[in-house]
Design brief:
With 72 residues, the protein is mainly α. The chain is built from five helices and no strands. It has helices spanning 2-8, 15-22, 26-33, 41-51, 55-71. Helix 2 (15-22) crosses helix 3. It is globular and about 35 Å long.
């Protein structure tokens, strides 16, 4: 949900438009945005190139999320 709230929605993109901007399939983006898949390094780089957000920052956030989930 964080990526959707901070990148897809503010740019008023549909999932299909965002997927095209990222160069991925709509299904791959949907899985990420709906929490069915984790952010990969490759996808983080795509977000960096498309939206200017640091891939390293995104991956640190993903790692912190994964650690918190594992500790539950």
């Amino acid at each position: 949900p964080w990526l959707r709230r901070n990148f897809v929605e503010p740019y008023r993109l549909t999932q299909a438009d965002a997927a095209m901007r990222l160069g991925v399939t709509r299904v791959a983006l949907s899985n990420l945005l709906n929490g069915k898949s984790a952010l990969s390094p490759e996808m983080a780089i795509r977000f960096e190139q498309a939206f200017g957000v640091s891939a390293k920052t995104l991956l640190r956030m993903q790692s912190a999320h994964d650690l918190a989930a594992a500790q539950k």
